[in-house]
Amino acid sequence: MYGERLLRDRGLRVTRPRLAVLAVLTECQAHLDVEEITVRVRERLDSVSVQAVYDVLGALTAAGLARRIAPAGGAAHYEARVGDNHHHLVCRQCGGITDVDCATGAAPCLEPIDTAGFVVEEAEVTYWGVCATCRS
User: Fold this and answer.
1) Is 2-77 a CATH 1.10.10.10 domain?
2) Where's it found, cell-wise (predicted)?
C-alpha cells in the first residue's frame, strides 16, 4: 500500500493511526486542525485519542510527510503538501487557509540581508487578508 511504503521509506513504523492520519491529510488536500483530523480519523478507526493524533502528526511532520502551519493567533493546521516551495493565504475573518505558489519559484524564495551564519533552506510567507466568501 502507498501509505505503508511512505512510512517505511521514512523509517517510521506502520500503525493504524499513522495510516489513518496520513490518509486523511492526503485525501482531504486541505489545511486541517487537530480536532478536524481527529474527527476524520475516528470515522476510519474504532477509537483514537487526541493525544495519539498529536503524536502521529509530530512523527509525520518530523519525517517530512506532513507540514505544520501555525498562523499567528490561530490553531496549528496540517497539510500533506510537502517538498515544494509554497506559501499560504489566511483569511482574517474565517481563518481559512489557502495555498499559494511562490512568486519566484526557487527555494528559498527570500534571502535575508544577513544570514548570521545560517544556511537558509526555506522561507515561510503568510499573506493575510479577507477571502472572497467573507467579502460577499
Assistant:
1) yes
2) Cytoplasm
Any idea what DSSP says for residue 113? Answer: S
Give the model confidence (pLDDT) of 78-96 as tens digits.
Answer: 999 998 878 999 999 999 9
- Which amino acids are annotated as binding site, given as ranges? 91, 94, 131, 134
User: Can you read off the three cell numbers belonging to residue 109?
Assistant: 524564495
Residue ranges matching CATH 1.10.10.10 in the chain: 2-77
Question: CATH 3.30.1490.190: which residues of the chain?
Answer: 84-135
| Domain 84-135 in CATH 3.10.20.280 | no
Task: Read off the pTM.
Answer: 0.87
State how far the Cα of 53 lies from the Cα of 41, in Å rounded to an integer. Answer: 8
Write out the binding residues for Zn(2+). Answer: 91, 94, 131, 134
User: How far, in whole angstroms, is CA 99 from its chain's centroid?
Assistant: 11
